[in-house]
Amino acid sequence: MKKITNITINIVFFLHVVLAFLLLFEGYVEVPFWLQPLGRMHPLVLHFPVAFIALLVLMQLFKKAIDGTSFNTINWFVLLLTSFTTVIATIMGLVLSLEGYESELMTWHKWMGVAISFVVFTLILIYKYQKVYKVLLFACLIGVTFAGHYGAGLTHGTHFITEPLVAMNKPKVSENTPIYTGFVQPILDAKCVSCHNPQKKKGELDLSTLAGVKKGGENGSVWLAHQPDESLFLKRVFLPIEDKEHMPPEGKPQLTDSEIKLIQTWIKHGINDTVSLVGLQKTDTLHQIVNNKWLKEVGDKIVQYDFDYADTDVVEALNNPYTTVIQKSHKSPAIDVAIFGKKSFKPEYISDLSKIKEQLVSLNLSNLPVQDSHLNNLSSFENLEVLILNSTQITNDVVKQLLSCKKLKSLSLSDTKVDVKISDDLKKLESLEELYLWNTNMTEEDISSLRAALNDVNIVEGYINDTKEETILAPPVLVDDKNIINSVEKITLKHKMAGVEMYYTLDGSKPDKNSLLYKAPFELNLNGKKSKTIKAKAFKSGWEQSKEAKFVFYDKGLKPVAFEVEYPNIHADYIAHANQILVDEVKPENKVKYSKFWAVFKDKPLIAIADFGNNNVVLSEINLNISVRGKKIKKSPIQFIEVLGSDNKTDWTSLEKKIFLRLNKEKLKSLELAIPKSKSYRYYKVFVKHNPKIELFVGQILFY
Amino acid sequence: MKKEVFENNLNINRRHFLSKAALGLGGVALGSLLMPDLLKGASDASNQLPLGMRHFASKAKRIIFLVQNGAPSQLESFDYKPKLNEMFGQDLPASIRGDQRLTGMTADQTSFPLVGSKFGFKQYGQSGAWVSDLFPNIAKITDDICIVKSMHTDAINHDPALTFFQTGAQVGSRPSMGSWFSYGLGSENKNLPAYCVLLSKGKGNGQGVYSKLWSNGFLDSTHQGVQLSASEDPILYLSDPKGLDRGFRRNMLNKLGELNEMSYQEFGDPEIQSKIKQYEMAFRMQTAVPEITDVSKEPDHIKKMYGSDCMIPGTYAANCLLARKLSESGVRFVQLYHQGWDQHKNLVGDIQHQAKDVDQASAALITDLKQRGLLDETLVIWGGEFGRTNYCQGKLTKDNYGRDHHPRCFSIFMAGGGIKAGTSYGETDELGYNIIKNPVHIHDLHATIMHLMGLDHERLTYKHLGRRFRLTDVHGHVVKDIIT
Q1: Where is the GH29D-like beta-sandwich domain (chain A) (predicted)?
Q2: Are residues A147 and A240 in the same domain?
Q3: In chain B, at which end, N or C, are there fewer CB atoms within 10 A of the end residue's CB?
């Protein structure tokens, strides 16, 4: 026994050294995460010292009822146990406190706990001196009571015990609550009353009741009816925070802007403690402030859900490339679902959602080929709040599925085939607040009758084109921009609107409704010319005719079987391959920009080799449409253009070369080079050397 | 990136080793308690919330940002200053100007004659918001928008100011706002990029728009903004080559995916994984995108609402319509840039074209979202990078004037997504030079936008070059007063 006693005392002593050490170096110690659970067991372990200390006291009280030797043995044993558990609980508590609790309450709790631990250890050392022992033991009991109370205050909140009593009296704030009791007094309670209360009247001021407020303090009345700027209360609030007179004092929670605004307006209104929201005109500033800000904030804070979180694996499994299932936030079990992709839609995407039927609060199915039959499980989504069914194939019957969705607040049926007969069912959706009905089968009268039937619901019918003003149509466009053709290729025009008629001319005259009507892709005979112009316009009733669209078509000439470019350009902003662009059969007409129709050459020249296959050809002309961009330079932006011919791609014969000494950069739109008659070649090389200070843009190379 | 490769090679590093060993060894307990750095990694991890989910429940899910590139004048749009008309031609008092630096363009000017708006203002809607006659359509929807008249910024020239507005820093190379949202929330529709960019250009004096404005900065490259082209075919090279069927493409991607996966196992470079994801997304985009970019099925009256320009690719109206379609399809962040607002001279003439370009389509976009019940979950932001001076740049005549850059105050408006509709926030002095009430800095706006999207701007961070970066750097306060 003696040996065990010694070991125990040594251990307890060691633990106290650790405790003292921790206390000394508290600021430098950081708790590793795996020790945190140990700290968090503090609330579990602390019950031992509490009970043991109480037991020691009890034993002391009933000492005489117990046989002497047994008492001593048991009491000593319990004392050792007490000290051991106390120091353990204290160390754990310290570890827990390092996780970042900081408050006055915490300080009290901590130091009392530490003190108890050391006192209990002292009890062991002075066990022989029974008188001192008794005094210290009783002090311990008192200490443990307080430390316990503060500790409980930390975990449960200081008002934990009295809470049920207070909560019963807490008034429910509504439109009928006097503004003073509902909103103003609570501000004072929260920010002022801790110093200005009947017990602790700083400056002789008590702000805990209206009577006290009206009475004022040592500097007289603090609120002057209708005179917010003259009222001492606000004067003090508006002083700079460094000012000694500023209230609340520096370091205490300050009034927020909206709180000040409310008090200001309330004083301006005349310090009337009976006036409530219903008694005020809607235009009254006080009404607006209270209604917009205060009533709302006090009334419905954050939406709280009482259902459980969905299993993360279930949520994970429901997500697929076309379905997005996501919890509203880390702290909210509610789930938003959106399904995308018209072509990829499968009915299972919706039926699978039954797995989260409780948590589903927002569902977006717009633009999907959804029919009523896909929505059989809607009725099981009892917490659904928002449902978006825009541009789907649903009918009036869909609402029948929704009757058990008691929380549905917002329903979007825009761009669907629902009509006014839906109204009877809609009436049964009690919590509906917003209804979107743009572009449905409802007339204006239908909407207004629906408005009358659904009184509380905000119905949005959306944009209705009420002006008879005719908007101008967009001009027709050429599909794929393909404007380099031969006589058998067809030309396809397009317009983005249904019901548009396109008329065109081939002779350069202005198109009108007597011109040719575009019905289907047509062939264009160039009649041996190098280019031909089509002009087209779009017409539609109710719309102003479009501006004229002009398309110039070019003869394709000879098309190489293979084409390569020595330096297919790579530009910082985009990458495109010149060996495709230069022969893509699109000759860009629009302004030069980085697009898939222009090849760009910066420091390297354009060197292109065209292969015309086994049937050698004779070229008479080449044509490049080009543009240059860059600094103004005195010399020509293009230095020369040269055409060479070869049969084997190694021995080249120069056929023609043109050197440019001066070229007007602005007018530079194309380069043509006529080639003197020569023998036929399989390969032709085009060489354009430009001034490297500019960028050369080339749209197309044509060979004739 | 290097770090990841390195770690993958070792497969276990010091931290892993120690944290694993420590679990088994009670003895390390006291040691690590006294040497806080020993297991430091843990406290970092607990601070960072997992990505892809909002920090708190909020209304807004998507953003459409209508960037009016070049800085539209607040004095001709939303900030009505009749006093300036009264004081026409008088010099700006030095006391008002204070120590405001000037641009190189007006620094040499000997006088700063005040000039008021040539265009009239009226009050609209229940909110009674003042809107200039240049914006008749936006005037009709004032009850759906919140005008912030007290924006201010640090930069005085276009590029730094725009970069600041987009990325929260004046120098480039930081991630753009859209990239941060892509990083923090991911894409709602997994078949489309989370961040799309659309460009258009007005007739007025244009300022550069560079791809750095939608850069992912140091974030993973999947978060980069995807610029759609201004053509009939907004995403280039998306269609399969002629003669290639889709099954073949699928097979090819499967095999390619296997090869990439092998490569990833060997090198552990996270960019390989991004690449695999991008291939897969591109494959799904092939069907998703044509559905979205096809505006031919839009009802006629919708085309009228946006204006006929909406059928001409590359116009602001077409981009607004496309923005609605993209946003409706779950693109987290759609960003439009409309160039041409930089009216140093001939403001009276140029601003009319510019306003005509954007007024109808901007209003139509908001109306269109509203009638589909989507405005609640979509935040629309309209604004330029800074404001314009209340004094004239260059020659002041009765009929025409110009305005220089002004960072001290400018107006923007926002709609939907939990913004308090039908309100105005902030005030400038009667000369429209300084803010006198409720200033909103760019950082504050960023913090507010993030708050509306359910993100805490102080907690969405990315560790790069040894420190944690945020969109708002070390600044920003949420403007609670404009949030419902």
Answers
A1: 486-546
A2: no
A3: N
Domain boundary among A234, A267, A294: A294
CATH code where residue A507 lies: 2.60.40
Domain count across chain A: 5
Tokens matching residue B200: 């258009």
**Nearest chain B residue to A341, by CA:** B288
Closest to A109 measured CA to CA, from A135, A141, A145, A82 = A145
Residue A455, domain CATH: 3.80.10.10
Q: Which of A139, A3, A116 lies closest to A49, judged by CA? A: A116
* Count of H-run helices and E-run strands, chain B: 15, 17
Strands A516-517 and B129-132, by their bridges, are: unpaired
Set of chain B residues whose Cβ sits within 8 Å of the Cβ of A337: none
Report the distance separating Cα B267 and Cα B270, nearest Å. 9
- Please tell me whether residues A275 and A220 are part of one structural domain: yes
Instruction: Determine the Cα–Cα distance for residues A563 and A580; give it in Å rounded to an integer.
Output: 8
Q: Is residue A305 in a domain?
A: no
- Same-domain check for residues A685 and A590: yes
Q: Which residue of A has its CA nearest to B39?
A: A32
Token couple for A329: 């936030």
- Nearest CA distance, B43 vs chain A (angstrom): 7
CB contact under 8 A, B312 and A340: no
Reading chain B (484 residues) residue by residue, the pLDDT tens digits are 556 655 555 555 556 555 555 444 454 445 445 444 444 443 443 345 667 788 888 889 999 999 999 999 999 999 999 999 999 999 999 889 888 888 888 888 888 999 999 999 999 999 899 999 999 999 999 999 999 999 999 999 999 999 999 999 999 889 999 999 999 998 899 888 899 999 998 888 878 888 889 999 999 888 999 988 877 777 777 777 777 888 888 999 999 999 999 999 988 888 888 888 888 888 888 888 888 888 888 888 888 899 888 888 889 999 999 999 999 999 999 999 999 999 999 999 999 999 998 999 999 999 999 999 999 999 999 999 999 999 999 889 989 999 999 999 999 999 999 999 999 999 999 999 999 999 999 999 999 999 999 999 998 999 998 889 999 999 999 999 999 8
Nearest CA to CA, how far is B407 from chain A (Å)? 26
CA B381 to chain centre: 8
CA distances from A155 to A101, A151, A394, B264 (A): 11, 7, 53, 49
Nearest to A463 among B42, B305, B454 (CB): B305
Measured between beta carbons, the chain A residues lying within 8 angstroms of B331 are none
Shortest distance, CA A320 to any CA of chain B (angstroms) = 8
pTM of the model: 0.69
Q: Provide the ipTM.
A: 0.85
The amino acid that residue B53 corresponds to is M
Long-range Cβ contacts of A423-427 (<8 Å, 24+ apart): A423/A449, A423/A450, A423/A453, A423/A454, A425/A396, A425/A399, A425/A400, A426/A399, A426/A450, A426/A453, A426/A454, A426/A457, A427/A453, A427/A454
Q: Do A329 and B367 touch (CB under 8 A)?
A: no
SS (H, E, C) A15-66: HHHHHHHHHHCHHHCCCCHHHHHHHHCHHHHCHHHHHHHHHHHHHHHCHHHC
Pick the CATH number of B62-235+295-482 from 3.30.390.50, 2.40.70.10, 3.50.50.60, 3.40.720.10: 3.40.720.10
Q: What is the C-alpha separation between A403 and A400, in angstroms, rounded?
A: 6
Q: How many residues does chain B have?
A: 484
Cβ of A344 and B303 within 8 Å?
Answer: no
User: Of A156, A184, A205, which closes a domain?
Assistant: A156
| Residue ranges making up the domain that contains A225 | 173-294
Tell me if A167 is assigned to some domain.
no
Domain residue spans in chain B?
A: 2-47, 62-235+295-482
The DSSP call for residue A293 is I
Quick one: CA dihedral A115, A117, A118, A119, positive or negative? positive
